[in-house]
Amino acid sequence: MRIALGGLWHETNTFAAGRTTLADFRAYQYAEGAGILVRYQGTGTELSGMIAATHAAGADLVPTVFAGAVPSGIIARAALDDICASFERALASGGPFDGVLLVLHGAAVAEGIADADAHVLGIVRARLGARIPIAATFDYHANLGASMVARADVLVGYDTYPHTDMHARGEEAARLLIRMIQTGARPHKAHVKLPLLTAPIVQRSGTKPLSEVYARLHAAEDGPGIWCGSIAMGFPYSDIAELGASVLVYGDDAGKAEDVARDLAAALWDVRHDLSPRLVPVPEAVARAIAASEGPVVLVDAADNVGGGSAGDGTAILAELLAQGARDAVVVIADEAAARAALTAGEGGAFDFPVGGKCDILHGPPVRVRGFVRRTFAEARYRHVGSYMAGYETSMGAAAVVDADGVRVLLTTRRTMPFDAGQLLSVGLDPARQRIIVVKSAIAWRAAYGAVAKSFIEVDTPGVCASNLARFAYRNRPRPAYPLEPDAVFEPAPNPHAA
Ligand SMILES: [Zn+2]
Fold first, then answer.
1. Separation of alpha carbons 250 and 190, rounded Å
2. What is the tens place of the pLDDT at every residue in 146-166?
3. Could you tell me the distance, in angstroms and rounded to a whole number, from the CA of residue 105 to the centre of ligand 1?
4. What is the phi/psi pair of residue 317, to 5°?
């Protein structure tokens, strides 16, 4: 059994400034050939799950290309074409193959190509023909479209947000691929798209109401005749026709798969009114955090969600912490110029520099931070110690910790998703000892600080990942869609184009 392994992973925020280039992929996750095995084996990723399951089955795994970038603006067409060309070369030279395993996201958008994930699948399908099975994973935030479903034999989505089951989903996709290779069987597909848009901040999988919908999904998966099922909650900041939630079920027969998909879609639609965010204005949120009897209090700046494509340099909460004289507060700001200024000043040196608010006009103006430099790092790196991509190493680039009367600002060169406590621990800041931690994240911060946080406040900040979707000027999204058209109606029906 000879199986090709590769993928493209990007969550594209089409409202974010700038293009995502090949350099952005190379700076975050880019590996070719055996380098994929070296880098990902034994990590909490889809790739590690796929590697483990194919090795356990005694299959011959041929790693090709894997490219992933931190969520950001639209993918430059040249970058997508370059990655696809590398992928095609590897498929051409490494074959013949009995099957293909891909790691995809499902919310990748490139210039001129609204569904970049379907584009990648199309290239693989065109090269290998209709008979070779293709299995792929996709993110909880996928805007699954009919083309993507049609071009793969099996797609397996994450069941968790915060995402902690990537390894397991990678294993599952690999097991299903091997089953297709060994038996020649292919499952029937049922894909039901809902006219439902939700912000990440309300998409937590482990609490009601979504925990109950997921319990229903898992019960169906345990039943006879169902291969697997997924719910894609969608990524509301990709302004494309495929935007929105959907349910995808694979089964031995079409009728059974469609019944399960319809039932799950109806269950999700029924709880739509409970999927609205409740946000606290910035001044009130900061005042409450300062007055809290015990910390740390997490202030959630979801509008500047680095993991959703934002710049990570939003200043709304930082400015208010300084104005209200907060103590033992920590904020991470991606600002290369400010980080360099701190490195130049050196440890113990005075710092007086405008911080953040430089990438666009949506995340507040730069804030003048005056204080001293506590720590500097020519390159700050950390290995993930928590449940998100455990074992994986992240680099923040050159970085510094600046102290402004007890408000500690971690200035980084690279945007870094706050999904692991190592981000603060590695620069000498113990999360448990802070009174206030600002996270530029919607939900996934819980994987890093959920265990130490005494409370959290979801703050009404501005930005390209704002939870109030009425802030965005959509041009391509489906209409009507709840909640922007509150009277939208829905009759669950499988999409015939996905078959
Ligand atoms: Zn996601």
1. 6
2. 999 999 999 999 999 989 999
3. 8
4. -75, -40
